[in-house]
Amino acid sequence: MPSRGRWGVILDAGSSGTRLHIYRWKDPEKALKNASKKEHGSLPRLVTEKKWTKKIRPGVSEFGDKPSRVGPEHLQSLIDHALKIIPEDKIKDTPIFLMATAGMRLLPDSTQASLTNQICRYFQENTDFSLLDCGLHIQVIPGETEGLYGWIASNYLLGGFDKPDSHQHGKGHHTYGFLDMGGASAQIAFAPNSTEAEKHSNDLKLLRMRTIDGSASEYKVFTATWLGFGVNQARESYVQSLRELYTPSAENELPDPCMPKGLRTTLDGDQVGGHRTDVLTLLGTGAFDECLKLTHPLLGKDKPCRDQPCLLNGQHVPAIDFDVNHFIGVSEYWHTTHGVFGGEGDKAYDFKTYQQRVKDFCSRDWDSIVPKLDTRKKVDAKIAQEACFKASWLINVLHDGIGIPRIGIEKLPAANVSKGALEHAKQQGFLDPFQPVDKIGDIEVSWTLGKMVLYAAGQIPPKSGDDRYPVGFGSNAAETIPSDFQFAGSSWHPHGHVNETHDGDDDWDLEAEDLLDKAKSRSASGLLIFFLLFVVLLYFFRTRERRMRLYGKVNALFFHRPRRPGSPRKGGGGRGLSIITNKLFRRPSAMYERVMEEGDADHFELGDVDSSSSSDGGDNDHSDSSEGSGFGRTSGLATPKVNLTEFEPTPSGSALDRSGLVVRTDSRDRLLPSSLQMLHAGKRSRAGSPTRQKSPLISPLQQD
User: Fold this and answer.
1) 113 labelled as ligand-binding?
2) Known binder of ligand: residue 183?
């Protein structure tokens, strides 16, 4: 039997490692057939599981000087893992993507081309996955594209696309901004307010998606990336500034206010025990206020801005209206706020509280910090020694760079929404100008999800007359399809197209319903025959005399055989008939009935998140965002999640449905009236065996 659903494979090739993601969704035509009227305007519902992901180290960029080895030594283990998950009959219909981020961006163009060509060739020669266009499937994506995919993934999980009325921020705005910071780069993506969007229309990306009913869905988004503004690259620039600012002491040391007091490291961050004069070292002074002042120039705010307004490094960004633009921050924004400095019960980011925690930690002596490190939670010395610099860098980028209001100190803009929506949004943290997240519900926020949502949307047939609008993104130009348009990589086929792969059982809900209909039909036929036989028997044995006469003949024929005195009775092969006659002639008996219903579902459904089932922990090293970072991912000190409550019930319920096991037991002993007991006194009868019924209505897997 063919396997059900559509599948997609994407490899996130960051500088620290490559991570495999697998997603599944329903066949578009059948998804539409089963969708409610309200769901017609929703994007496809994707499913994933934690066990479907796998991360290996190092990154693809490490094979720059040995491209021929990247396949067998690096990618093959990920391919093998994917083949264990995806059904064999679906492999040829499953697209595979490998998209590299900041680590590969730092390599020369010729090295990038050599690696991507080798990877594509290896996939084509060693797998049967769908790979029609190497340039589209295997590529080094720009930071702006990574940011756009992250923006799609975040709003998809938050419900900003499908439930705009529940996410109104004022002025008709219902999407969230996206901030990402890794080791080498940082990204921003948001939809400006209508005034800024009109003023800077040429700077926006036109994003086209398609809902289940085939309607076009368009958004105009600004995206930007700052290469070199990730925490690792920023640290290198900071250390270089210390060498230019200070003259080494007699002990060959440079003061570093961004490290706890007494901590000594090399310029590369390796700890140094005791005083050494043979190598230039950094000596922590624990002066966090000074640390903030020394990291501020790295923002490049003094760089000339050719196209006003600018944020960081002289780079143009439309003005951000914090009345309606509310941002979530992932990767380093989460690790640095909720790792070493996270507190119990933290739900969002409060500048005043956070800065005080950072000051308290960074002013302590290093010798007093080491004994309290919890290696069981992976808060090791390396993480602790980097925490103060990362905190200062994040504070400067957020507040002096991007301009996020300092929650806890500055007055926040008033939200122009209804009172009911305002109270609900406040409870969920939706109206905070900035909120760091690791997961939304139980789902890790990854830009790879945004890419696959776009691909799945491209498989949906468009409404009549809308086929001129492909799914993808490009410049916000007047043309229907801009010259730089990036297609989703998928295509739709009208019903009956000769090349269409349309499996009859792609939709598991439909298959279950068909089976149930057949079961009901068979049951109805069987019941009708049984009823007719029962009526005939009632006619022939409608009087007590006839029933007793037949009982006597049957009993004499099968059971009253000669036996020696004192020998035990033997049931023999007539026991079943004895039970039947007991029933017909109202002999004593007992019946035990049991009905069992069972079902199971174990998939994460990404289209609609219910945070009430969110769990702690998780791994967030899925991209460049993980480079040189990790304490938030592994510390376990404080891991609050964005708590989202479903605004409207959906057919699938929560992101994780479990039907469970339902058992109902009914027992009943039927006792004869005393007069009939006296009638049969001296006769021994056996109770009938328990009869068991299993419900034909096995609950199907719900994955709408």
Assistant:
1) no
2) yes
